[in-house]
Specification:
Helix content of chain A: 40-55%
Strand order of the largest sheet of chain A: 7-3-10-9-8
Shape of chain A: elongated
Largest sheet of chain A: 5 strands, antiparallel
Strand content of chain A: 15-25%
Structural class of chain A: alpha+beta
Radius of gyration of chain A: 26 Å
Number of strands of chain A: 10
Number of domains of chain A: 3
Order of helices and strands of chain A: HHHEEHHHEEEEHHHEHHEEEH
CATH architecture of the largest domain in chain A: 2-Layer Sandwich
Oligomer: homodimer
CATH topology of the largest domain in chain A: Beta-Lactamase
DNA sequence: CATAGCACTCTATTTTCTCGATTGCTACTT
DNA sequence: AAGTAGCAATCGAGAAAATAGAGTGCTATG
């Protein structure tokens, strides 16, 4: 258990290091607290023994360890009010009813990347609440038709289908069948239903049913697929912990790798501190996230009728935790409204 | 006018520098030609006086100047056959009839970025050949309908429209009117036609015509809008001329700036050499492109019934000119097929 | 328990030194 | 005149040495 003063010192060191990115010496701390540098140094030694602080070398100031950041996030961090200007900018996006949800997400995360200098990630999936509303077909020429699928939540997906000799009549017949049989089916059940209920039927009525079946199958797969977007990648370059080209390359390649992004999506907080700060915003510091030991990932899930997914912010471990948590919380609430 | 030998030397220096990125000394050249280093040095002095070569400092080998690269590209460069493996990979993309043109473009440029380690850019616009084929409306609930527009070349665009009290009946009436009056109109004339022919008419028949008019106007604007995609940005990091973080930042920000990409689109070759290499592939070296004095932009335009646009490759001035020109030429031909 | 003082450690930066590559020039050869 | 060999001069890149400064740990003292 830490004493009040030790917590105070740890907090100051973390905040100072976040601000200036330089190891924090005892002098700076003792200016703020009312005690001498020697006293602070003694406390520092203890915090270091507890594994909360580290030294970069024998005689330099202290830097928070991963455990130190964790302690700060769980116990010491204060969530300040959001900057009014920032809220205003975000609000204008959320109030713009012209935009689709995915645009709102992208735009607001662009803004957040700007405001924070970190990188944002959205993983968006059409919610299971989406049910098939309507399927229609527009013939383009003798060989090609376009299949358009609409869900009851307003998603539209379309695909060119080459007929390869199937007559337009047969296509229309198939569409009519599908419309009759699976309208109202939740999108994540469509594939199965198509396979086991529709396929046998159209096989009877339609000659070249394979071609058509595949085409429709593709459209439905597309509509329930995930959508990944990474915003503000260049911000990586702004942080001095990444001022090494090798490091930058490595992080960039990770941010481009869909597997890693899936991994972020699947991260789950083990040590679920149910402190006052726990607003379903999860923080993964360094090795806690499987992405890169030098970054922190802060993420949250959202869910509406139309979509569900994850938004995450990636930055250096020396991150403005409080600001990011606040922003994510704000966005989550706005989206879910 | 350069002598045969001077051309030979210039060509060797350019090729060697492209390969190794180190200033080329006289020794290396005289190994390949049958003459002494002193002779080569004398020639080098002359090439330098002509502005085709430069020195990085008083006593280092030579580096091609911008003018030197230009001379190489215009007069000396040999276009070798494309690597069979590369062609094969590209071909599998072009042969995949499942893909839409924009996907084909993106995928093939991804491949090219991989193969070359440069950055690719596509600027794609729906061709003026697109004519309106069909407009339909799907009601989602009492307040929202989705407007779907299809062109005769198979483009689909859609948009949510909030009704704000307009009755579904009126929407349908409007759609019917539009369908009757402007089907077959080229997309770039739709806006005007909507304004001057449709608006007056629906104003008579429909009460809240402003809302509807704006909604349709938006959809049509979207369908004729440009589409920019930058692929393989990270490749910038691979080239040692950009191993400086400041430089990287600067180039990244330029590649993110739509204005600059438009500028690339609008670049036009002044000194249109109609040499044998002129295949409508344009090369802009350093200051010739308005983007960045340290890069070269190689670009070409394409045009099909469905789309038209520009593809460009951006890399260091020390670029594999021959390879890139060949690849662009190949892609252009494939697309236009 | 807190503090002042001091020798010590280590980094970061600057300065100096050395090595090697390459040049330009001059004098010589063909 | 064109080509070549030889040589001093130049400069950069990298290693080694020198310096300054910030911060520590420890000890003795209030």
């Amino acid at each position: 258990m830490l004493t009040k003063r030790q917590e105070e010192i740890l907090k100051l060191i973390v905040m100072e290091y976040i601000k200036l990115a330089k190891p924090v010496g005892s002098k700076l701390i003792c200016d703020r607290l009312n005690c001498s540098s020697a006293t602070v140094r003694n406390e520092m030694v203890e915090l270091e023994e507890l594994g909360l602080l580290e030294k970069t070398h024998t005689s330099s100031g202290r830097v928070p360890s991963e455990k130190g950041y964790r302690y700060y996030v769980d116990n010491l961090m204060e969530l300040k009010e959001l900057n009014g200007e920032d809220v205003f900018k975000l609000q204008t996006i959320f109030n713009n009813s012209q935009l689709e949800l995915s645009d709102v997400l992208n735009k607001s995360l662009e803004l957040i990347s700007d405001m924070t200098s970190y990188t944002s990630i959205v993983l968006d999936t059409k919610s299971h609440e989406n049910k098939l509303k309507e399927i229609s077909v527009v013939p383009i020429n003798n060989d090609v038709v376009i299949v358009i699928v609409v869900t009851d939540q307003g998603y539209v997906e379309h695909k060119d289908v080459e007929l390869h000799g199937v007559s337009l009549e047969e296509v229309k017949k198939t569409v009519k069948l599908i419309n009759e049989l699976i309208i109202g089916t939740p999108i994540d059940e469509v594939s199965a239903k198509l396979e086991f209920e529709i396929k046998p039927i159209i096989a009877k009525y339609v000659k070249q049913h394979e071609v058509l079946y595949n085409a429709f199958y593709d459209v439905f797969t597309d509509i329930s697929s995930k959508n990944i977007n990474v915003v503000g990648k260049n911000n990586i370059l702004k942080h001095q912990e990444f001022n090494d080209l090798g490091k930058v390359k490595s992080i960039f390649s990770k941010l481009d790798d869909e597997n890693i992004l899936e991994k972020i999506d699947e991260l789950e907080e083990k040590n679920n501190q149910s402190g006052e700060n726990s607003k379903d915003i999860e923080v993964y510091i360094g090795n806690e996230n499987g992405v890169d030991p030098d970054v922190t990932v802060i993420k949250t899930n959202y869910k509406t009728n139309k979509d569900e997914g994850t938004i995450a912010i990636v930055g250096p471990k020396r991150m403005e935790y409080s600001k990011v948590v606040n922003l994510l919380d704000y966005i989550k609430k706005q989206i879910e409204r």
